[in-house]
Amino acid sequence: MPLKSEFTQKDFDQINRDYEDLKQAAAKRCSGEEEMALIQKAFEFANAAHNGIRRRSGEPYMIHPIAVAKIVVSDIGLGCKSIVAALLHDVVEDTDYTVSDISNLFGEKIASLVDGLTKIKTVLDKEGQAKTESMQAENFKRILLTLNDDVRVVLIKLADRLHNCRTIEFMPEYKRDKILSETMFIFIPLAHRLGLYGVKSEMEDIWLRYKEPQAFNEISKQINATISKRQEEIDSFCAPIEEALNAAGFSFEIKKRVKTPYSIWHKIQTKGITFDQVYDLYAIRIIFNPPTASTESERDMCYHIFSIITEKYRYKPDRVRDWVKHPKNNGYEALHCTLMSNAGIWIEVQIRSQRMNDIAEKGIAAHWSYKKEGYVGEGINEMDLWIDKIKEILVNPDVSALELLDIIHSDLVSTDIFVFTHKGQQKRIVKGATALDFAYSIHTEIGNNAIAAKVNMKLVPLSYVLRSGDQVEIITAENEHPKREWLNFLQTRRAKAEVLDYLKANRKENIEAGRQMLYSALEQRGYKVNDLIIKQLVTNYEVLEGEPDELFFRIAAGIAKLDRLDEVLNMNKAPELEKPKGWSISRIWGKKESYVIDPKTQESKYIIASCCNPIPGDSVVGFLSSDGLCTVHKKSCPLANSMAAKFGDRIVMPEWAGDINKAFLVRLSLRGFDRLGMINEITRYVSLVMGVNIRRFNLGSEDGVFDGYMDVNVSDKEVLEQLMNKLSRIDGIQSVVRTEI
Q1: pLDDT 10s digits, 678-700
Q2: Is 93 in the active site?
Q3: In the annotation, is 44 catalytic?
Q4: Within 10 A of 348 (CB to CB), how many other CB atoms are there?
Q5: Of the residues 21, 44, 94, 485, which is catalytic?
Q6: Catalytically annotated residue among 20, 34, 93, 566
Q7: What is the pLDDT of residues 151-207, one digit of tens each?
């Protein structure tokens, strides 16, 4: 809640300084004195409305809307109405003014933007309002529904979220974790899809700083140390490129960048590598201005520059990315290549025109700007197509809020590939799509009647996962029809919807199949099936009709996923269900968000999440069910972020007790050069020197290189890090990385 106190002259001076900075930024986007006057009017109105109000940090509240407005104009590139709406976005929620007051003073369009932002703030910020498990998912649905009205509402909300992330240190930890999880699950992918790379990258780094502080600090330290050592080498690398491009008559600038801490951390996690193995740590951007009199297209100029710089340096063929010919689905265009410098380091080079760079920096707002100027580039309509697709999903009455959230999240983080029909026509389809998805993308009847496919002239099953460049021909038969099993491998929403429509005609047999699948899954988990359990599953799976038969049908159809069964059962466990065995957590009274994981107390139970296997010393977050069962995850666990985005009111902040006497299972992935006695030396270090028990050991060697993993029992993170450091010093070992089991 905002705090009230009288402002000092220092407070007023801070507000005025920040507003002067905003005015300078706004002047570059606004068309004249009339628009600047409207911004001035909005500032004075909001400043008076928020007078005497402070944020948790103690600074005047007005600093926040000014900062949001500056992000809106400087980082997103929106204009006058959006700046005004950003300045006013908290007035209706936090003061006595109404949307009608805003409309009378600033016009209907600005009032509608403020109204949309107010509704978003209301549903996101109020706690304890939900009586159903899905209220938080419903809130995000309302946010995305604003795409139907004006996408600028979502863009301003992204600016608001970015500034809240910048000042998140002043939030209590449980609230901070909820906000960061929402940010990772929805807002970061949304910023990426809308082309806002700067906003996305900053939010990612803030997420990492608080979710994995040790990793963030270590990576930042390594980046700074590496930059200081490599700066001269980067400058030497750029010099011949500048000379060659000047000689060729290009008007250009070169910008240097280093990979962000989050992108490095993510690559380390997903690739199982170390910091030293991130070879695209450095990048330079060549941003050129096409001459007005030139007959070369922007695309040709990118290829021309590529030919010039690859005469100077050797390039890595498998690292060339041509997003000029095939722009990303968020409109991003550039030509990427990775060159070997004379100092022996790989450097990524991104080649862009000024227009491409504006779109890369400002995303959808830059698209609009260039459209108004009459420029239409290849892929420029992809953003509009995506927004239309999201609108279609949002208005579908058959999609529950939780299902919607998963669908939108999957769509936001997906990437596209290009494939060809058997006649050579190019088609864009989501990465991971199957031949059957491709069939449905052509026509419903082709999908319904498909029996197999030919990919690159070879016969493959319908479940074949397509790769970029594949040429696909679908084989059909008139008497063929969709099968329930298809839902196990279909990836695209359209294809799944078509199969479901067909299955509804055979509803009775699907209900019985789903019933058997559910009963079997429950019995495997040791639960006794009764009406109470089924009722809870109907509620927690959000079956709109409230009928068990609908739940059974959804399970058979693959809509209600049985791999979520444990999570769903733990949302609201029945008294009859036996609690899983686990240690206890005790609440620290007077500290709402904190719990201590302690084997000596018996107040309530907790379980360690098997998806991420946290150990003492890890940053953790807990999710409390109604019966007191707490599931403990690593803060960086993707499932934890998903759950926090949906059930933020269930977050608690467990703390490890200092005297836990238990071994935790951890997996270490090893890679290096094989030699005689390597395995003996590894096991000696682990068992004899460190006194750590090895549970499983799996190493393979080929052509003198070994890789594999080792599962060990450790007491805490400190012991694990000592073990990893000792193993990394063994001659021949190139990397030791903690990975998920």
Answers
A1: 888 888 888 887 888 888 988 88
A2: yes
A3: no
A4: 20
A5: 94
A6: 93
A7: 788 889 899 999 999 999 988 888 888 889 888 888 888 888 787 888 999 999 999
